[in-house]
Amino acid sequence: MIFQRPIPFPGTVRSNLAVADASAPDSTFFDVLCRVGLDPSMLERVADDLSGGEAQRMCIARTLLTEPEVILMDEPTSSLDPENRIGIEDLARDLAQEGIGVVWVSHDLSQVQRIADRIEVLVEGRNATPTESLTYLEQRTEGDR
């Protein structure tokens, strides 16, 4: 799971990644850091010193090391700058194309429409009917104009 705000563990980037796979060689850590758009030279950096975008990407890398079939992303870009937001969106699309399920929770309708293959709308805590979903999406889209 990827949370709204990244949650780095105390220590270095390496120690954060090792939480997911302690036996992984450095080459595996290098590969997963590159996959999420981080420089492998960051392995010895203190995780708490990373920027918000770097920390979020590191947390995604840590999650990927567990080889998940599905990743739940709860507002993963809400506290990020536009450049990092786009990078995380691109990564989510790439993961989905590679067969890793991505469930993206968001209140940002324009973002959801950019990245989603399927949208599920909740109304008062329940799944909306197709008609309710369409009405909601149309109203929200008109409000964004």
Automatic annotation (TrEMBL):
Pfam families per record: ABC_tran (PF00005)
One example GO MF annotation: ATP binding
Domain ABC transporter residues, every copy: 1-78
InterPro entries according to UniProt: ABC_transporter-like_ATP-bd, P-loop_NTPase
Gene3D superfamilies named in the record: P-loop containing nucleotide triphosphate hydrolases
Protein's recorded name: Unannotated protein
Organism (species): freshwater metagenome
